[in-house]
């Protein structure tokens, strides 16, 4: 078996390199894919060296964390002479995911009410229609995104890009700096411009799918993308799902499988083709590993590393603590109130608190967060936590096992290394509080 390369260059050098080519690619994408608008001009300025608050922009847009993830995933997997080719391929994926942050943020508040939120229903309608348009394009609809989304333009103009983010204040700070130079514009010209970003999102996704359409992994990439948008709509429209159904839909709704399928194709088919690669596709081993990774990252995203990895005795102790707090805190009317007010375990509950505060869907809180708090509700929460923790442990073991099988059959460890690194990156990311940049993509 050929071991994966272990010699690594200075990470900071590669971060700077990937950041530079990602920003160049994003600028090109903005010019090609985004309809002419104040939003496009603002974005071009925001990522340029002319912006004195550029570092803030790169963080709140998610570029900083995406670049770090790219380097962590890929560093050491190829020889130095192949690194630039691998880094260049990362640009297409990173650009697409930057637009995805905007469309993904439309779901903030859809799963739960936020004070003063008057656009919840509108955003649900917009998000469903966007997902349907994306699926149509990925299935071969030749109409451009601007045409498919044209009926939604007036609806989108009622939604604030800044409100639909994890940090309105930082977005506002950057916009105000831009408006000083462009005093003919109003803040609303920048704030209510979701539509151009959604158009660009679709076109960037089609670019991504087309980039590997002739590869053996191309269909894994395309179907993974389609599954993502279909699953989001299923979660938006759900009435009652079992816990296994929630796991399945939630795993499909994130971009783990298509992201990994893309990079694996680049590594194993483009840069250094592996002779037996078709075998692990044909027998479903690779698809199984990607699904395991999707489940793991979804549970990390929703529960956080510390909570999902609690042992059974620790979960029992936690239940007892929450019950005691419930008895001592009569002002906690719902489970959401209780989890927000409990005065310990900031990092333990950080992902739950994030989704409560921003009204986002959470597998562990589904159907429980906003109902009247009772001992039975706390027991149901503990049951959910036990179920998802057990799923996490089983899937983590299964991923280790299937990764070893894939490495042995390929005679190369890089595909498995890539998948495991992706999970480990998110284990580290979601072990931190969501309030800091080390614990969230765009905060």
Could you walk me through the main structural features you see in this protein, from its secondary elements to its overall organization?
- The structure is a single chain.
- With 443 residues, the chain is mostly helical.
- The protein folds into two domains: 1-211, no CATH class; 273-443, no CATH class.
- The chain has 22 helices and no strands.
- Helix 5 packs antiparallel against helix 11 (194-211) and helix 5 packs antiparallel against helix 14 (256-271).
- The longest helix has 36 residues, at 375-410.
- The two termini are 42 Å apart.
- Mean pLDDT is 91; it is low at 1-8.
Structure summarized in a few sentences:
By secondary structure, the chain is mainly alpha-helical. It is built from 22 helices and no strands.
């Amino acid at each position: 078996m050929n071991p994966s390369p272990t010699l690594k260059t200075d990470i900071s050098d590669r971060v700077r390199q990937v950041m530079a080519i990602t920003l160049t690619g994003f600028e090109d994408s903005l010019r090609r894919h985004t309809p002419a608008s104040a939003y496009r001009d603002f974005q071009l300025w925001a990522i340029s060296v002319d912006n004195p608050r550029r570092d803030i922009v790169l963080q709140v847009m998610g570029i900083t964390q995406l670049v770090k993830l790219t380097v962590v995933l890929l560093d050491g997997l190829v020889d130095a002479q192949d690194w630039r080719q691998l880094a260049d391929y990362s640009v297409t994926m990173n650009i697409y995911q930057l637009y995805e942050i905007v469309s993904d943020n439309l779901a903030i508040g859809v799963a739960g009410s936020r004070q003063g939120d008057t656009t919840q229903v509108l955003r649900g309608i917009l998000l469903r229609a966007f997902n349907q348009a994306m699926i149509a394009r990925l299935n071969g609809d030749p109409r451009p995104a601007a045409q498919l989304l044209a009926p939604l333009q007036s609806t989108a103009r009622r939604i604030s890009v800044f409100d639909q983010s994890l940090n309105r204040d930082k977005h506002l700070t950057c916009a105000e700096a831009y408006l000083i130079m462009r005093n003919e514009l109003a803040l609303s010209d920048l704030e209510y411009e979701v539509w151009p970003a959604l158009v660009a999102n679709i076109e960037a996704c089609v670019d991504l799918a087309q980039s590997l359409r002739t590869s053996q992994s191309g269909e894994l990439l395309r179907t993974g993308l389609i599954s993502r948008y279909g699953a989001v709509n299923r979660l938006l429209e759900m009435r009652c799902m079992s816990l296994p159904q929630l796991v399945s839909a939630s795993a499909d709704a994130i971009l783990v499988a298509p992201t990994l399928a893309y990079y694996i194709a680049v590594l194993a088919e483009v840069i250094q083709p592996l002779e037996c690669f078709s075998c692990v596709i044909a027998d479903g081993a690779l698809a199984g590993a990607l699904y395991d990774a999707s489940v793991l990252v979804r549970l990390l995203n929703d529960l956080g590393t510390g909570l999902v990895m609690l042992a059974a005795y620790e979960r029992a102790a936690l239940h007892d603590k929450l019950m005691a707090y419930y008895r001592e805190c009569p002002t906690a009317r719902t489970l959401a109130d209780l989890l927000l007010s409990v005065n310990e375990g900031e990092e333990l509950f950080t992902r739950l608190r994030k989704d409560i505060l921003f009204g986002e869907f959470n597998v562990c809180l589904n159907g429980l967060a906003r109902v009247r708090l009772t001992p039975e509700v706390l027991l149901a929460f503990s049951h959910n936590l036990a179920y998802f923790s057990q799923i996490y442990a089983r899937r983590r073991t299964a991923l280790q096992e299937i990764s070893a099988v894939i490495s042995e059959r390929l005679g190369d460890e890089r595909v498995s290394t890539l998948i495991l690194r992706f999970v480990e990156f998110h284990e580290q990311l979601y072990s931190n509080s969501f309030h800091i940049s080390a614990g969230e993509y765009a905060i």
